Amino acid sequence: MEEEIRKIIELLCFKDFKIDADEEQRFFSIHIADEIVSKEKLPRIISDLNKIVRLVAKKKGFDPVIVDINNYRRERERLIVELAKAAARQAVATKGSVSLPAMNAYERRLVHSELSVRPDVKTESVGEGKERKVIITFIS
């Protein structure tokens, strides 16, 4: 799958890039040195590239893969986990509930997974569509 990803990136006219592949985990970290790949544009670029890569993987009979660009996804995951931990601490300190901002399904799953080991809080997803978020509640 690495070769297919390389071809896609070249077709997108990125010249200065490097791919670190973890084929076993089906994760590809791409480092692109191009001014068009700004922090503001990264979420959309990653989303679009992941859609294209998934379509190519499906067509060629490969297992689905995940693509990250310039460590954006990894950094975002770290921030979500830290946010979840801080919200859990706040829920415990106030003996109440804390509502996190709306998140996509993957980010909500990160929160649920991270806090599942804590017996003093529970997590629940509420809302619909793009407004779906996690509520963290203190358990006495």
Global morphology: elongated
Distance between the termini: 49 Å
Q: Report the CATH architecture of the largest domain.
A: 2-Layer Sandwich
Q: Compute the number of structural domains.
A: 2
Mean pLDDT: 90
Strand order of the largest sheet: 1-2-3
Largest sheet: 3 strands, mixed
**Ranges with pLDDT <50 over ≥5 residues?**
none
Computed CA radius of gyration, to the nearest angstrom: 18 Å
What is the tally of helical segments? 4
Strand percentage, roughly? 15-25%
The helix-strand sequence is HEEHEHEHEE
What does this structure look like?
By secondary structure, the protein is an alpha+beta fold. It folds into two domains: 2-70, GMP Synthetase, Chain A, domain 3 (2-Layer Sandwich), CATH 3.30.300; 74-138, Ribosomal Protein S8, Chain: A, domain 1, CATH 3.30.1370. It contains four helices and six strands. The protein has helices at 2-11, 42-60, 72-94, 105-115; strands at 17-22, 27-32, 66-69, 97-99, 121-126, 133-138. A three-stranded mixed beta sheet has the order 1-2-3. It has a three-stranded antiparallel beta sheet with strand order 4-6-5, with helices on one face. Strand 1 (17-22) and strand 2 form a beta hairpin. The longest helix is centred in the middle third of the chain and has 23 residues, at 72-94. The N and C termini lie far apart (49 Å).
